Amino acid sequence: MKGLIHIYTGNGKGKTTAAIGLGIRAYGRGFKVLMVQFLKGADTGEIHTLKKLEPEFLLYKGTEIKKFTWNMNEEELRVTAGIQQDIFNYAVDAAMCGGWDMVIMDEILGAVGTGMVDLKEVVRFIKDKPDNFELVLTGRNAPAELVELADYVSEIKAVKHPMEKGIPARKGIEN
After folding, report:
1. Is residue 95 part of a domain?
2. Are 90 and 36 in contact (CB under 8 A)?
């Protein structure tokens, strides 16, 4: 089976959730899944479940991000960019070495959008990608170059969210 490319993008809640759902479906059919998270911070509920599925469903987070990028000073942005590049390099090396049936790059589009990971490197990775694994990319504002290369593109649109009413993220629902 030829591995295809999926993008979950948009300003709505659920891109990571959709990618994890696809990963769980694949895992349930015997796939080995690697999920690499970019620009993620908080200890979220899904991490506890995914850790129980290792090593067949491996979650790699790198260093936890403590602030949103728009709240970082120049030094914090520089350090964070280096970390995101290291995470990307890990993901590419792991994907190209084989052994994974699905590779999920969660919030890679955010890392590209902030300039922390070079869009040209992501395009090159996709063009050089062997056919033996499914690739899933998530994040807001998918660049046209990546949309063009993808086989599936789903845009998740925000229509209504409890944060608009001042309701904070709830444990087990948003985190």
Report:
1. yes
2. yes
Which position among 17, 49, 132, 141 bears the catalytic label? 17
* Residue 100 annotated in active site: no
The Cα–Cα gap between 109 and 116 comes to 10
Indicate which residue of 70, 75, 127, 165 is catalytic: 70
Instruction: Check if 40 is active-site.
Output: no
CA 152, CA 148: separation in Å to the nearest integer?
10
141 in catalytic set: no
Can you give the pTM of this predicted structure? 0.91
Q: Is 17 a catalytic residue?
A: yes
Dihedral Cα 34, 109, 166, 48, nearest 10 deg: 10
pLDDT, mean of each 10-residue run, the chain (175 residues): 96 95 98 94 79 94 72 80 92 94 97 95 97 97 98 94 82 74
Q: Respond yes or no: is residue 125 known to be catalytic.
A: no
In CATH, what number is assigned to the domain containing residue 114?
3.40.50.300
Q: How many domains does the chain have?
A: 1
Position 117 in a domain: yes
Whether 92 maps to a domain, the answer reads: yes
Confirm whether 52 is a catalytic residue: no
The residues, ordered by sequence, that sit 6+ positions from 66 with a Cβ below 8 Å of its Cβ are: 41
Is there a catalytic annotation at residue 44?
no
